[in-house]
Design goal:
The chain has 14 helices and three strands. It has a three-stranded mixed β-sheet. The termini are far apart. The chain folds into two domains: 124 residues; 118 residues, no CATH class. It is globular, with a radius of gyration of 24 Å. The protein is mainly alpha-helical. Helix 8 crosses helix 13. The structure holds zinc ion. The site of zinc ion (ZN) has 4 residues, from helix 5 and helix 7. The site of zinc ion has 4 residues, from helix 5 and helix 7.
């Protein structure tokens, strides 16, 4: 290859690289660079399901309720966060055959003919097993969507304790997660109360979502749920740490104590009641 040809190849590659990085920068500013494009045709906010479990009786029956469940979850998510969407039609639910058994629901923004959509995927397996509260799970995903709609690209920069903590709190999933954490801790031989207190020398709880949610539960218990909504509104122009300290008038050390108090209240609901004196004294007689 001659040197002039070399030069034009280098210039062409350079131009492509400049164009691509320019486009990436442009898309990164909007936060939409990762949106896939999908053809969607939802009916009453629900995409028709044609997956492997479509002939299962339980799934077929529950599919009929999905649209009403979506309506209720959307109302709950808006009420809890104080964020109202001008485009409820852009929150679309679909049932999907996940390859992993552990996923109950997930969501992601996609692009469709009618514009940007938050596509919430509900596991067909969960629809069949009826083990998980799908309305709560849907509310959780809708909270992500409402906050993304309000905060735009800034939402992605928020730490997990804010994004997931708020979604778990607003989706009323604290008890469900605490019960799971309780049995996991028991299996490992740990005391969940001690893990939640973050006592030194103990491993971390291993559920950041729950820890974040307990902080917001504490704020709601002691300052009212409106304080959490005020915090959410402040995220547009304040860091989460600044916003939470300002909204509650508490230092981070005090907020940590507030989270621990909330954890203890939740634990009381999760654990079986302590045995009465009679049961302790005479328990062996009932063996
Ligand atoms: Zn989430």
């Amino acid at each position: 290859m001659r040197s002039s040809e070399n030069l034009s190849v280098i210039v062409a590659v350079g131009l492509v690289l400049i164009f691509c990085s320019g486009m990436n920068l442009l898309l990164a500013r909007t936060g939409r660079e990762g949106y896939p494009v999908l053809a969607l045709s939802p009916r009453a906010g629900v995409e028709p399901y044609g997956g492997n479990l479509r002939f299962n009786e339980v799934v077929a029956h529950r599919l009929l309720d999905l649209s009403i469940m979506r309506e209720r979850a959307l109302a709950r998510a808006q009420l809890m966060t104080g964020l109202r969407t001008p485009h409820p039609e852009r929150y679309v639910v679909r049932v999907r055959d996940f390859s992993s058994d552990e996923v109950g629901a997930s969501s992601r923004p996609v692009r469709s003919e009618s514009g940007d959509v938050l596509l919430i995927s509900v596991a067909s397996r969960q629809l069949k097993l009826e083990q998980m509260d799908l309305e709560d799970a849907m509310t959780h995903e809708l909270v992500h969507g409402l906050m993304r709609e309000r905060l735009g690209a800034r939402y992605r920069e928020l730490p997990d304790w804010v994004r997931e903590g708020l979604a778990v709190w607003a989706g009323s999933q604290i008890l469900e997660r605490a019960r799971f954490a309780q049995s996991a801790a028991e299996e490992e031989g740990f005391d969940l109360a001690a893990l939640l207190d973050e006592q030194p020398l103990l491993p971390s709880l291993g559920d950041d979502y729950l820890e974040g949610a307990l902080l917001f539960q504490g704020v709601a218990d002691e300052f009212g749920s409106e304080a959490v909504r005020f915090f959410i509104r402040s995220l547009g122009d304040e860091s989460p740490e600044e916003a939470l300290s300002r909204v509650t008038g508490r230092s981070w050390l005090e907020l940590e104590q507030l989270r621990i108090r909330a954890a203890r209240r939740v634990l009381q609901q999760v654990r079986p009641p302590a045995p009465t004196v009679d049961e302790v004294l005479f328990g062996q007689n009932f063996l």
